[in-house]
Amino acid sequence: MRRLVIPLLMVVACNANGNGGAPDSANGKPDAGREAGPPDGPLPDSAPPPRCDHPKVEKSCKDDWCLVPAGCFWMGSPPTEKCREQCWGGTNCPKETRHPVTLTHGFEIKATEVTQQEFKDLMGYNPSYFGSGLTSPVEMVSWFEAAHYCNKVSANKGLVPCYVCGVEPGVEAGVPEAGVPDASPGPDGAAPDGGAVPDGGIPPDGGAPNKNIRCDVAPEFDGKGGKTIYDCPGYRLPTEAEWEYAYRAGTDTELHSGTLATCTGTTDKNADAIAWHGGNSGKKTHAVGGKTPNAWGVHDMSGNVWEWCHDRFQHDPGSDAATDPVGTFGPTRSDRGGSCWSELPYIRAAMRDTNQPNERYDYIGFRVVRTR
């Protein structure tokens, strides 16, 4: 896992808490007329507008999609949080610096991670290492393949795609990337945070035919012309801010189900209720949707598989307030949520990780969002 310092777009502040008024239903924007304080107390009077509450958290899901309204929240973790800023190797871990974030667009998010069946039906192959069933999350997918999948969903719905994808010359289809395992080991070969070591095995379908696919954000949504990925009408990967906002559902604890009792144990009642993690999964993925969802109705945001996010990774997001943030510089991409290999600290809401976008592991999958 590589650690880079990447600038992040940061603009205006919000004043958020874990409960309060609903968003303005007329325009989908957060209600800027309220001034309730965030969990740590109010922002200074010098904080720039708009000021708003976290919207009321209500489950609104249909056909495996859940609506998440626009609003404000505290992103990251406070210095007092248990188990924060851990990583395999223990040095230069991604920062979880707490800062207020305003999301000015509501969005719909898939209630579950994309399954092996869904991926195979649309893409024509199943790259997954685990043979735990087609209702388990797809894994062994690169960031590029996840973005390509999003574009295909958009095309099927007649929507403008959020990414441009094409074949990179000189990258042979079906050939593993240098240094990237083409399959993953049994439990004895896993690093504590889910890191995998190649063992020469072959995924169930013999590997992915689209390893030569390369994708990036479509030029009209790269921010240079005023529109960002939040303005794309098609399906896409969530930004880190959207992912954490959707995870927390108005909470400010380590997990959306409550606090973690331990950083070193293998079981925890709040973790066990919502996640397939290294202590209860048998070191394999499980059918999506089998654990308790959060208050928005979203399942498996802790554990099962890490989830690719849209952003290019920034090592430290900083403490400044941000509106619609997205990482736009640097070679690696963010992933969130922990996996079936992960120890308990790695499934927290604020936990962050990064990988190269061409890398494929049995512990990384994804879910899809769309701006509403």
Produce a short descriptive summary.
The protein has 372 residues and is mainly beta.
Fill in the keyword field for this structure:
372 residues, mainly beta, four-stranded antiparallel β-sheet, four-stranded mixed β-sheet, 4 helices
Describe the model:
The protein has a single domain (1-372), classed as paralog of FGE (formylglycine-generating enzyme) (Alpha-Beta Complex). Helices cover 10% and strands 14% of the residues. It contains 4 helices and 13 strands. The chain has helices at 116-123, 143-156, 240-248, 269-274, and strands spanning 61-62, 65-68, 71-75, 99-103, 107-110, 163-167, 213-217, 306-312, 322-323, 333-336, 352-355, 364-365, 369-371. The chain is globular and about 50 Å long.
Work out the number of β strands. 13
- Average predicted confidence as pLDDT: 81
Can you identify the CATH class? Alpha Beta
CATH architect. name: Alpha-Beta Complex
Q: Tell me about the biggest sheet?
A: 4 strands, antiparallel
User: CATH superfamily membership, which one?
Assistant: paralog of FGE (formylglycine-generating enzyme)
Helix fraction by DSSP (H/I, runs of at least 4): under 10%
- Report the portion of residues in β strands: 5-15%
Gyration radius, rounded: 19 Å
Q: What is the fold's blueprint, element by element?
A:
Elements: E1 61-62, E2 65-68, E3 71-75, E4 99-103, E5 107-110, H1 116-123, H2 143-156, E6 163-167, E7 213-217, H3 240-248, H4 269-274, E8 306-312, E9 322-323, E10 333-336, E11 352-355, E12 364-365, E13 369-371
Parallel strand pairs: 4-9, 8-12
Antiparallel strand pairs: 1-2, 2-5, 3-4, 5-13, 6-7, 8-10, 10-11
